[in-house]
Amino acid sequence: MNRVSLECGGKSPQIFLADLEDLDRAVTYAINGIFGVMGEVCSAGSRLIVDRPIAEAFKARFIERGPAAFVPGDPLDPDTTMGPLVTRTQHDRVLGYIRKGRDEGATVAFGGDTPDLPGYYVNSTLFTDVDNRMTIAREEIFGPVATILEVDGLEEALRVANDSIYGLAASVWTTDLRAAHEAVRGLEAGTLYVNCFDHGDPTAPFLGHKQSGQGGDKTLEGLLNYTQTKSAWIHLGR
Questions:
Q1: What is the pLDDT of residues 200-220, one digit of tens each?
Q2: Is 22 domain-assigned?
Q3: Residues with active-site annotation
């Protein structure tokens, strides 16, 4: 019987509460968390769950800065900040999700198309007016497509964040330490971030919950996946 350690992707939420300290910094992390590496990251923070009192300001900053943050271009050009998707199949799949988002009633705030370049490129895309029942909010797109979901407070934010088959990574942005601890306890994900996203080093495990996988990477816990415990009793003849 083969034992396996699996990391099976995710649909990682980032919760932005109304009391967060620095909205500009939070938006920067949100942009980098979904558009970096073309969104082809297992833990990409693709679900931006925003407390309603700051939703309009959050969207305005994201729309202002998001399109220029990662610009498609020749991967050999040092000025390029976004390369093509990995295959034509994935390119077509991402565009299919974008069409699905439009069909299901979400609004394309920017992007949703391809640049005039040879290759499998997709422009950074943001959807607003997203309901958590929509396909783009539930399925892993694995491309530069972000969704903003508006909520009222932490309780609803946790309910929306956990309403997913995935549980790889998640974050919460707040100045309230009690709320941060409540989110860390309540979020159904293996890797949690508070007031940051996608930080880490080999001293912290990278784990998946639910259908994001089993086992983990890094640290002693990761090494134990490659070991098997024995139990031995030795009788000394007394």
A1: 888 888 888 999 988 778 888
A2: yes
A3: 7, 42
